[in-house]
């Protein structure tokens, strides 16, 4: 223990240890002299406090606690004999109040805004504390920027689909424990991105690199609503070699694996509020709009492009729709004549020009597909 450690009783009224009684002891309060067990009896004798950092340690197992520090001020009154000082009032410093509000805002951002788990919040809280201790809030940089970076990095480290821009845009307000609504000064993407780069460069924060496979396996909605076969197929598709962001690959893989199955159950928050169509009493299919909500780290347009690339790589053939089957069974005579004419012209050009056809690449691709389909 550091040489500047004091007992809790020596610290007197300069620290608040009441929060220790609510901590989950890793040893289940079994060791004799457990600080958590004694704190529930208002006994803090087993605590050792580092007065420099404001941290307390259990004298039995060494588990660490963060205690609130206070400033002691004295009330004064004027009398005929001059100024008389009496009593003392405990008040938290401005720095301590700002830090506490920052942790409250972070909790509201992670749980209420981003719908992250308690484990993600715990890690985000640790990242925020590390950045504060590293001096990241100095130089005019506000705590909201630190909160955005802490929530983003913790979410990505737990394989959640997030973008830094999404977290910045959503962190605009919060509700205090007393139910008071407060706005938050918006942080700029430039400053937040610079902060993230500095923190990772200085090894204060890790650099998150989740894979598409991990993002699928950590998506709470997919785990709750998709069967194991779909999830396993989606993970296999995500490793097919398609290039792009892991979020877009994960979303596209889930879309392709789900196919036309009605996986969005009635009453789900993602269910589209419209008049039910035939067959929708059992649920709705995944759409690009829905998948973009499930994976906020990408967009519907990017997912559509990734789906095409996955199908091209694996040469997947989608089942024909009812309209396509009808066209094949009852072809339009005019289209048949046009098709035959195009095939005849193509065969003549191909033989005369030895494959050097003066058409665009798209035209050539279409004509070649027509030719190949006739051979079958």
Written overview of the protein:
With 376 residues, the protein is of the alpha+beta class. It folds into 4 domains: 65 residues, no CATH class; 108 residues, Orthogonal Bundle (Cyclin A, domain 1); 97 residues, Cyclin A, domain 1; 51 residues, no CATH class. It is built from 16 helices and 10 strands. The strands form 4 sheets. It has a 4-stranded antiparallel beta sheet. A hairpin with a 4-residue loop joins strand 3 and strand 4. It is elongated, with a radius of gyration of 31 Å. The N and C termini lie far apart (81 Å). The N terminus is likely disordered.
List the helices and strands and how they pair.
Elements: E1 5-7, H1 8-11, E2 15-16, H2 35-39, E3 47-50, E4 55-58, E5 64-66, E6 68-69, E7 71-79, E8 82-91, H3 94-113, H4 118-133, H5 143-157, H6 164-170, E9 173-175, E10 181-183, H7 189-201, H8 212-217, H9 220-225, H10 228-238, H11 246-258, H12 288-294, H13 300-314, H14 322-329, H15 333-352, H16 361-375
Antiparallel strand pairs: 1-3, 2-6, 3-4, 4-5, 7-8, 9-10
Helix pairs in contact: 3-4, 3-5, 4-5, 5-7, 10-11, 11-12, 11-13, 12-13, 15-16
DSSP helix fraction: 40-55%
Give the oligomer, counting copies of the same chain as homo and different chains as hetero. Answer: single chain
**Rg over C-alpha atoms, rounded to the nearest angstrom:** 31 Å
Helix count?
Answer: 16
Terminus-to-terminus distance: 81 Å
Strand content: 5-15%
Level-1 CATH class name of the largest domain = Mainly Alpha
Class computed from helices, strands and strand pairing: alpha+beta
Largest sheet composition: 4 strands, antiparallel
Strand order of the largest sheet: 1-3-4-5
Which descriptor suits the 3D outline?
A: elongated
Q: CATH topology of the largest domain, anyone?
A: Cyclin A, domain 1
């Amino acid at each position: 223990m550091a040489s500047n450690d004091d007992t809790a009783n020596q610290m007197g009224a300069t620290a608040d240890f009441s929060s220790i009684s609510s901590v989950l002891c890793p040893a289940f309060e079994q060791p004799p002299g457990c600080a958590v067990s004694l704190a529930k009896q208002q006994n803090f004798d087993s605590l050792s406090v580092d007065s420099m950092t404001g941290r307390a340690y259990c004298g039995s197992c060494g588990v660490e606690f963060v205690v609130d520090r206070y400033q002691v001020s004295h009330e004064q009154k004027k009398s005929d004999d001059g100024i008389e000082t009496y009593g003392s009032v405990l008040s938290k410093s401005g720095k301590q109040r700002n830090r506490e509000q920052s942790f409250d805002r972070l909790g509201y951002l992670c749980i209420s805004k981003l719908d992250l788990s308690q484990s993600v919040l715990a890690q985000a809280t640790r990242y925020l504390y590390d950045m504060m201790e590293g001096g990241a809030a100095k130089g005019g940089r506000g705590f909201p920027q630190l909160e955005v970076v802490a929530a983003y990095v913790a979410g990505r480290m737990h394989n959640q689909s997030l973008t830094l821009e999404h977290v910045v845009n959503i962190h605009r307000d919060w509700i205090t424990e007393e139910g008071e609504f407060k706005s938050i000064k918006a942080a700029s993407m430039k400053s937040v991105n610079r902060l993230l780069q500095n923190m990772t460069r200085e090894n204060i924060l890790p650099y998150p690199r989740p894979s598409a496979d991990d993002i699928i396996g950590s998506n709470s909605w997919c785990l709750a609503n998709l069967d194991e076969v779909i999830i396993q197929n989606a993970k296999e598709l995500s490793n097919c070699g398609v290039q792009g962001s892991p979020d877009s690959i994960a979303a596209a893989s889930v879309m392709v694996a789900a196919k036309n199955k009605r996986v969005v159950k009635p009453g789900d928050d993602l269910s589209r509020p419209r008049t039910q169509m035939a067959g929708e009493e059992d649920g709705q299919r995944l759409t690009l709009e829905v998948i973009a909500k499930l994976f906020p780290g990408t967009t519907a347009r990017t997912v559509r492009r990734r789906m095409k690339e996955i199908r091209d790589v694996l040469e997947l053939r989608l089942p024909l729709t009812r309209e396509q089957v009808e066209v094949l069974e009852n072809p339009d005579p005019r289209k048949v004549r046009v098709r035959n004419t195009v095939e005849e012209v193509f065969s003549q050009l191909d033989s005369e020009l030895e494959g050097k056809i003066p058409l665009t690449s798209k035209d050539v691709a279409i004509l070649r597909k027509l030719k190949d389909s006739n051979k079958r």
